[in-house]
Hints:
Elements lengths: L2 H6 L5 H4 L3 H15 L7 E4 L13 E6 L1 E2 L11 E2 L2 H19 L7 E8 L6 H11 L3 E11 L6 H10 L3 E7 L3 H6 L6 H14 L3 E8 L7 H13 L3 E6 L7 H7 L8 H17 L2 E3 L4 E4 L14 E3 L4 E4 L2 E4 L4 H6 L7 E4 L2 H9 L1
Amino acid sequence: MTHRNLLFDVRIPFQLLRHRSLAKIARQAIYSLAIGKEGYPFVFRQVEEGEELPHYTSPNVYIHIPFCRSICPHCPYNKIVFRNDSYVSYGQALEIELRYYLAQKDIPRIETLYFGGGTPSMTPELIAQVIALTQPNFAENVEIGVEVHPKDATIERLEQFKRYGVNRISLGIETFQDALLRTLGRGYTGQQAEQAIHNATQVGFACVDVNLIYGISGQEIQDPIHDVKRCMALGVDHLSAYPLITFEHTHLGKLVREGKFQEYHERKRARTQKEIAKVCLAHGFKRTSVWSFTKANASAYTTVTRESYLGFGAGAGSKVDGEFWFNTFSVAAYNKLIKPRPAILLQTTDKFRRLHWLY
């Protein structure tokens, strides 16, 4: 074996290291060198009661709906299991927050309106409520996108969304492999996932996006490649393929720390990403982000990957002029807010904002 092969065959468990104090020290060192002492550690400041807040606006709006049928072990996003009483209160609180913003003067027309979660597709009435409320402020050719769980992607539900004005959907397929879907706790089969894509393309939207995950324990490189090719054959407009990242606060992160979840080797992960890119480019798709590919003459499905955006709902983040702020992550606390206000602000420096723009 050559010296070069020896170098490249060193097996470093990068994912496992993410959950160790050594990784945190390394991240601190990198950020400190890049941003400087004044910009790192990041300072999250709690917003005090009655504090005067700056007036920020954006043409890009994100709505977070945190309700799910069950919690997937790998999901890092703000979510809770659906309960009707909490759902009703949440709809009322979300309307209060939106009305408060819409009542302000000189707000721009809404150019993009995206619903994420959680599983927003399981609560279509709330989506209809938000669209009706914000419609008077829509710009011409507004983009309205909804994240759709494959179990919700029936012809009836998709046509319902289309009647509401939704013109873009994102299907969280993850994989077509039944065993891997069980590992991720997704609650559907590969055949049901394929039917969901077929239904979406049949109903017809300006963009049908599919999310895939690779780097799942037990998955071989050819498995996600096969998944990508199936998506292409089914006529998707936009494809996002993400590596499985085991965040510390998730159930899967806990299993990694306890040594109960076998890791997908980093070298194999990099090879998989390269092969996915080759397949997408060979099918005439163009790369539109690190993980995403878009069909020629189609527009990408993008939510918060924009210069500015305003987030509404529990745990929703906002970014305008390099400033970041976040609503409370507690759904119960959000439901009780009488006057909307963010829970925390991220204080940044000019250097941090320039580096974030570059990132």
